[in-house]
TrEMBL record:
InterPro entries documented for this protein: MoaE_sf, MOCS2B_euk, Mopterin_biosynth_MoaE
Main localization of the protein described in the UniProt heading: cytoplasm
Record's catalysed reaction(s): 2 [molybdopterin-synthase sulfur-carrier protein]-C-terminal-Gly-aminoethanethioate + cyclic pyranopterin phosphate + H2O = molybdopterin + 2 [molybdopterin-synthase sulfur-carrier protein]-C-terminal Gly-Gly + 2 H(+)
Species the sequence originates in: Canis lupus familiaris
Cellular component terms per the entry's GO annotation: molybdopterin synthase complex
Region: Disordered, residue numbers: 1-24
Single annotated GO MF: molybdopterin synthase activity
GO biological process: Mo-molybdopterin cofactor biosynthetic process
Feature: compositional bias, Polar residues: 1-13
Protein name: Molybdopterin synthase catalytic subunit
Subunit structure: Heterotetramer; composed of 2 small (MOCS2A) and 2 large (MOCS2B) subunits.
Primary gene name: MOCS2
Amino acid sequence: MSSLEISSSTFSQEMKLPSSPPLVEGSALEPFRKDLNEIEEKPKDIIKFTAEKLSVDEVSQLVISPLCGAVSLFVGTTRNNFEGKKVISLEYEAYLPMAENEIRKICSDIRQKWPVKHIAVFHRLGLVPVSEASVIIAVSSVHRASSLQAVSYAIDTLKAKVPIWKKSLELPTAFWLVAKLRNELN
């Protein structure tokens, strides 16, 4: 018997969890329920370019909303190979005024296509070692389909239109760079 079967068979009809009491007018919980129903949040577009290491948790926390049941993420990381060559890091550069403007357009396009609440797009600049995040995109929405489609659109459009350039530092290049630095130091 699998652990799932064991777990499900240990519950009998008598072991049902108590249901929440219905909220009645005049109860202590009624104002709390009204407060939750009256929450209004302005949609946020959060865009950041940084040389600092990106945090998935930080970015996802920025888009969480009590009005939403979904937060979808895309995390792009540096992989250790490209076209058969060993990669040790990527280096990113951007024309920041234009890059930020293009990402704002992407956010606007997303809002026209899907009912989303908050959007965060963080992109790393400078050297990004293998396994570290280069880009994190987070979108919140009431239902998952909207945020999943929006995240996919955001990364595809970012790669196609935003002026961010990537250069891979491959192992032979790294050896050349180390040799060059040694020569300059001597």
